[in-house]
Design brief:
alpha/beta, D-Maltodextrin-Binding Protein, domain 2, binds beta-D-glucopyranuronic acid, four-stranded mixed β-sheet, five-stranded mixed β-sheet, 15 helices
């Protein structure tokens, strides 16, 4: 009996030693369970726990349970109050201004062009720039988020129809200016999970997003007009807190980085499936999906490069591209050059 107890004690002690130093870290995600990015976050957590032999456990908080606005999550990462967050690259631009260069309106010909950029030298340099810029953030990998288009509670078939429409935008000054330059009024401060109620309450006339978010958040029921102007392709990014990573073993940080990279392909696959099913759901619900005529499409595009006056967020005499892309013209030119193959 005594021997058995000694054995049990030894076993318990060994177990303690094995898990001593084990840490549990939090990951914040605005999307619901089952959404492609949430699935990728969970896959990331699974891989990290497995490859660190349980030394690092990551708890994924989905549905905006920790931070409903991505800027809140980003600031928590900077302070070291949060370890990871999967966010859109759009709000990251407020902390890493160069980030706008990879999400300028009408920059990519298609998803393959965007992925050639993100997986190539430009995208990998931009990931490193996140930390190099002194933001306190570390860029781990990119995820797909398709193309974003406007959705409203009244029909939009040309730029003229955008006039005066209050549109919820992500927290990014360039994106707000983009709506303003089209004649609308860009509104910020509304989290993605609050868009539906803001539309039904009449605070805004619409928002803009990809097929999956438009469908998954239920926004298509409040704003059933979706105009496929495809103004931007904004990738998602998995971020880590520089301060939190600094407290971990260097070898474990390398494992974390490798696991994140591994989940990129996983998310892209889930994304493709979800994009198709969301489009199907929205169409079946009887929403009005507008394909722009080539002339109407050109109007949207031209608005981004035409010098303007009296538009909030753009200096008089400048175009949106000059105002927000001017400092990164070399990167933008290089992205356009990659597009020659597509
Ligand atoms: C979705 C992104 C999410 C953003 C949201 C938004 O996946 O990260 O928070 O757009 O518009 O497409 O805020």
């Amino acid at each position: 009996m005594k021997r058995l107890m000694t054995l049990a004690l030894a076993l318990a002690l060994a177990l303690c030693a094995a898990t001593a130093g084990a840490v549990t870290l939090k990951l914040s995600e605005v999307h619901a369970e089952g959404y492609p990015t949430t699935l990728a976050d969970q896959e990331f957590a699974r891989l990290v726990e497995e490859r660190t032999d349980g030394r690092i456990r990551i708890d994924v908080y989905s549905g905006g349970a920790l931070y409903g606005e991505e800027t809140g999550a980003i600031e928590a990462l900077q302070l070291g109050d949060l370890a990871f967050s999967r966010v859109s690259a759009s709000p990251v631009s407020s902390y890493v201004p160069a980030m706008n260069a990879i999400q300028m309106p009408y920059l990519y010909k298609n998803a393959d062009h965007m992925w050639a950029v993100l997986d190539g030298e430009i995208g990998q340099k931009m990931l490193s720039e996140v930390q190099a810029s002194g933001s306190g953030l570390v860029g781990l990998c990119w995820y797909d988020a398709g193309a974003r288009s406007y959705y409203t509670n009244k029909p939009v078939t040309c730029v003229e129809d955008m006039k005066g429409l209050k549109i919820r935008m992500q927290n990014n000054r360039m994106m707000v200016a983009m709506t303003n330059v089209l004649g609308g009024v860009g509104v910020t401060g509304i989290g993605p999970n609050e868009v539906y109620s803001a539309i039904t309450q009449g605070t805004i006339d619409g928002a803009e997003n990809n097929w999956p978010t438009y469908q998954n958040m239920g926004d298509y029921e409040a704003a059933p007009y979706y105009v496929l102007d495809k103004h931007t392709m904004v990738p998602e990014i998995l971020l880590a807190s520089e301060a939190v990573l600094a407290d971990l073993d260097e070898a474990d940080v390398e494992i974390i980085k490798a696991c994140a990279r591994e989940t990129q392909e996983f998310e892209k696959q889930k994304w493709a499936e979800k994009e198709a099913s969301s489009e199907q759901i929205v169409r079946a619900a009887g929403c009005t999906i507008t394909e722009l005529t080539p002339e109407a499409f050109a109007e949207f595009q031209d608005a981004m490069t035409r010098p303007v006056t009296g538009v909030e967020g753009i200096d008089d005499g400048k175009s949106l591209y000059e105002m927000y892309g001017g400092a990164y013209q070399d990167v933008i030119d290089a992205i356009v050059a990659v597009g020659e193959d597509f």
